[in-house]
User: Which sequence fits this backbone?
């Protein structure tokens, strides 16, 4: 098999976004555009993937990490100049190079594979991925000769009126014979309206050398959407959302209102899960069968077990077991772990805490930096006092303990197995197993006090 390489163009600033965030880092369904592109490319069998970075180089590298190699384009002199920055790494290699823009987030690995297959089948030296656009404004247009063969690509700003009427556009995605690409790039000039070195000019140069040039027209225009401004960004978001949501519905997930349901590209969801509107599932979240999510719940990088319900709540970076009930209005903060059959009810905040199976904090509590055993009942208004102003401390509540309402557990502290803490206690010493701890002032009743008060007022 021929060797395959890929170059991702991601050095531009994205002036038209009018943003301090570099264009290719703008998220679509929660994932930066350039990450979408690289993830799709990585479904192909590639020897090398190189991203050309410039504006925001560090941030782009931080995002992609080891998914890519990098070359720097110091000055943004055009897409042709950008590819040329990979010359040192690629120029002497035999094989096929795919070039993709970092601002086409909807492009799929399947379409890239079809493009490569077409390129190979045609024995072409360059193949352009094209699409038919209802409104081609802003894209490069594909100029075909009398015999239907691709001759060249003309940019919007350089196109004559006649050329502007052409609806077949350059998606900015190509396959090239690698050696020929880098030879031809050296002959690209910047003699055009924008004064830039255009990558698409390679097509005309190779054509002039008598090489076979081909085009593969994808039927899915939406895949080729190039995001140059925030209007296009919102279109990309909508299309991506629709693609993701339809796939989940086909796989057996009920989305009560798909228009109002936001699921990231790396989320996995089991069968017969029901998701109510206003829910946002982000990052590497997994939801197991028969769970019920929403309305209005946000779950980020978390695992949710089967038959669990999460209503009007937020959970991040946590592991939640099966048959757990969360909410309404609960907050599960990072590094929490809830066992099976746990209940975290309204206005309960859990942070960096573990709950064993069957434990409950049903109302109005803060449980942070805590290890809670199984079968524990945490009464309404319980607070783990975890912070002394400098350090955080651990509260341990062992199996089957019962914490009465409105208790403060001043950490570090342990409530032993099966122990009781009386309501209203402020606990700052360990409670032994099976003990009852009462830590509040005694009640005194002053008999007849009310009438005494009233008679004083009269005088
Ligand atoms: C480009 C194509 C156009 C095509 C469209 C598809 C050129 C000259 N034009 O136009 O034919 O229809 O994409 O979306 O290629 N970049 C660099 N360095 C540079 C310039 C750009 O890395 O010096 C990167 C940008 O970050 C971006 C990508 O290349 O990710 C495309 O650049 P952009 O300016 O968006 O090109 P378009 O005008 O959209
Ligand atoms: Ca673009």
Assistant:
């Amino acid at each position: 098999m021929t060797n395959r390489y890929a170059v991702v163009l991601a050095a531009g600033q994205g002036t038209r976004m009018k943003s301090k965030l570099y264009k290719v880092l703008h998220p679509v369904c929660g994932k930066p555009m350039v990450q979408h592109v690289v993830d799709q490319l990585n479904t192909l069998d590639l020897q090398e993937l190189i991203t050309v970075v410039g504006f925001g180089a560090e941030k782009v590298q931080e995002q992609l990490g080891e998914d890519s190699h990098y070359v720097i384009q110091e000055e943004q002199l055009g897409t042709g100049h950008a590819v040329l920055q990979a010359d040192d790494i690629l120029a002497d290699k035999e094989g096929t190079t795919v070039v993709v823009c970092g601002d086409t987030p909807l492009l799929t690995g399947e379409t890239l594979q079809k493009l490569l297959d077409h390129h190979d089948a045609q024995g072409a030296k360059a193949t352009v991925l094209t699409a038919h656009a209802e409104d081609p404004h802003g894209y490069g247009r594909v100029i075909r000769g009398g015999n239907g063969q691709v001759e060249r690509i003309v940019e919007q700003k350089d196109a004559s009126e006649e050329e502007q009427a052409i609806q077949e556009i350059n998606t900015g995605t190509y396959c090239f014979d690698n050696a020929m690409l880098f030879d031809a790039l050296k002959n690209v000039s910047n003699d055009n309206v924008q004064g830039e070195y255009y990558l698409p000019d390679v097509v005309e140069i190779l054509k002039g050398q008598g090489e076979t040039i081909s085009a593969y027209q994808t039927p899915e225009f939406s895949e080729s959407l190039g995001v140059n401004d925030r209007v296009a960004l919102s279109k990309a978001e909508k299309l991506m959302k629709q693609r993701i949501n339809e796939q989940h519905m086909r796989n057996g997930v009920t989305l009560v209102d798909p228009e109002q349901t936001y699921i990231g590209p790396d989320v996995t969801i089991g069968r017969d899960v029901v998701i109510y509107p206003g829910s946002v599932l982000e990052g590497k979240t997994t939801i197991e069968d028969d769970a019920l999510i929403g309305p209005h719940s946000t779950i980020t990088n978390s695992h949710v077990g089967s038959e669990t319900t999460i209503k009007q709540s937020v959970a991040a970076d946590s592991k939640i077991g099966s048959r757990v009930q969360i909410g309404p209005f609960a907050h599960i903060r990072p590094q929490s772990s809830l066992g099976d059959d746990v209940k975290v009810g309204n206005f309960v905040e859990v942070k960096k805490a573990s709950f064993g199976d069957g434990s409950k904090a049903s109302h109005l509590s803060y449980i942070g930096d805590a290890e809670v055993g199984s079968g524990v009942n945490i009464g309404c208004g319980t607070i783990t006092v975890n912070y002394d102003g400098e350090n955080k401390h651990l509260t341990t509540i062992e199996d089957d303990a019962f914490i009465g309402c409105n208790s403060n557990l001043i950490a570090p502290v342990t409530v032993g197995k099966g122990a009781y803490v009386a309501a209203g206690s402020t606990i700052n010493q360990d409670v032994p197993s099976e003990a009852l701890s009462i830590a509040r002032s005694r009640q005194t009743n002053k008999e007849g006090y009310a009438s005494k008060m009233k008679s004083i007022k009269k005088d």
Q: What stands out?
A: The CA atoms of residues 220 and 255 lie 25 Å apart.
